Amino acid sequence: MDAPYAILERLEPGIARLLARNPSPFTYFGTQTYLVGDEELVVIDPGPDMPEHVEAIVAALDGRSLAAIACTHTHRDHSPASRALKEATGAPIIGCAPLVLESIGPRADASFDKEYAPDLVLADGQAIEFDNGKRLLAVATPGHTSNHLCFAFGDALFTGDHVMGWSTTVVVPPDGEMGAYMKSLDLLRQRGDRIFYPAHGPAVTKPMQLVRGMIGHRLQRERQILRLVGERARDIPDIVANAYPGLDQRLVPAAGGSVLAHLLDLQKRGMVEAGEGETWSKAKAA
């Protein structure tokens, strides 16, 4: 399948997208950059530092002014192009806070953008005002990263990497945190938006159904991990081998990070305990 790279696709009034040519097991066909507005625009997730993608964004503006460059988080498939786009247009970089952390072990997905420098950081509930009264509202959704924001435009929600229709989200410690991620999922469940536009993969047209399913999937994985460590002490590779049979080897590090995130959350709740040799066991009853 040929993905429509560098072609502006209009999704609904006031919302269009461009696809960056950075496909991978973690980005699907690539990062989707959204253009929001009519005469004055906001660009959401300008994407990786690829000149051809920045040129496509500038061409898609077609002479219209750019009010802001908004980033959901600072992984390198989302924010690096913000600098070239700011230089080309003069628009400010507004959105998530800067964040650079090293993961435990090699990163399974994109590393952090160390040069991300926002002109303004948005807190939960703050908005970018543009295009004669339109508002893009920041919705804090920590979990995938601690600085992750979604952006609400009316009843449409741009979900970055927090919710994707094609795959589950990678949650890798030390910055990815399972308890925060679950709370953020529940927040989206309570919001009741009409449609989700993720940074990777197709639009989610039944978002509440998907969010409920994602919450259920994570709770099921939690029960599975508790059962495995309840049988005997296990290290993370042992848990991954039993919990993810037949997993693509390219995704094993991500699965290990997800298992660790679950274990740390369960440990915080007093349900598992760390043992010798990097093993984990079910916590003994008091």
Automatic annotation (TrEMBL):
Stored SMART domains: Lactamase_B
Positions of the Metallo-beta-lactamase domain: 30-200
Entries under Pfam families matching the protein: Lactamase_B (PF00753), WHD_BLACT (PF17778)
InterPro entries: LACTB2_WH, Metallo-B-lactamas, RibonucZ/Hydroxyglut_hydro, Sec-metab_biosynth-thioest, WH-like_DNA-bd_sf
Organism: Sphingomonas caseinilyticus
Protein name: MBL fold metallo-hydrolase
CDD domains linked to this entry: metallo-hydrolase-like_MBL-fold
